[in-house]
Amino acid sequence: DEREPLEEVRPQAPVKPMTATEVKVNVSIPEAANRAAATGADGVGLLRIEHMILSLGQTPARFIEENGEDAYVSELIDGVRTVADEFYPRPVRVRTLDAPTDEFRELEGGANEPLEHNPMLGYRGIRRSLDRPDVFAYELEAFARLFDMGYDNLEIMLPLVNDAEDVYRAKRELEKAGIDPGKRKWGVMIETPASALCVEEMAEAGIDFASFGTNDLTQYTLAVDRNNENVADRFDELHPAVLRLIADVIETCREHDVATSICGQAGSKPEMAQFLVNEGVSSISANIDAVRDVQHEVKRVEQKLLLDSVR
Ligand code: PEP
Ligand code: MG
Q1: How far apart are CA 133 and CA 156, in angstroms?
Q2: Residue 87 Cα, ligand 2 centroid: separation in angstroms?
Q3: Is the pTM of this model over 0.90?
Q4: Which ligand sits closest to the CA of 214?
């Protein structure tokens, strides 16, 4: 085998401000992995796989029907691997599929998708995955194969969970796919008020982390459609109700040794970074263009906390 050991060909992260709170980056398309890694982020706080799947132009069911399961798994492996490789050994948190039915309906094969009045309140995220464990299994197979290839920097994140039952059911699917939840890092997104209120029971299920998806958490807490311009001025991720849920989750998670992070758009806002660092969040994941500013804001707030503590 003449291949170079992977470590030797991986780029080194550039110099960046040292902070106790990790600052990570969100990645939505594998093509952005290089640019994302160049920010010097401490890892990927959210790797979306929607684009890898939607860009096939067909629903997963149709794609598999025409190309076979292996082709589907390979597509996922290729996309995730590009990012896991670029960041290795920095952690990459890959999220299982979370596209609403209206987005699937636009694809070839999408006519079979349910027609929903409220796709955002409907068949998406973990709900869909648990309803179709046979399809979910292909995603998990891709992750399992990546672990086998040595990408031990991968972490698995479950979207739109509501409670411990969702988490235990998903955990069972990980196990069935040969992924040991005691050995690999896995966790949930906090996107619904229910998930925030049930985080203690979810912690007992053995999750390693809980990550605030503030796009949805804000939408569902305030009952403000994140895509409705008529109420866009009411979409406030820094609303006291949202912040209260976040603060409570951070406190509960700390008691249970569960890491906390944010991967919604608000993670790119300095005001949110300030709030989260003061509350003791473990990491913040920002958009590529915002990583630098968040790194500096985190550093500033941490230094202030330190000075205040010795005064
Ligand atoms: C969120 O809800 O904040 C999130 C990161 O997920 P998405 O934007 O993909 O719903
Ligand atoms: Mg979301």
Answers
A1: 16
A2: 23
A3: yes
A4: 1
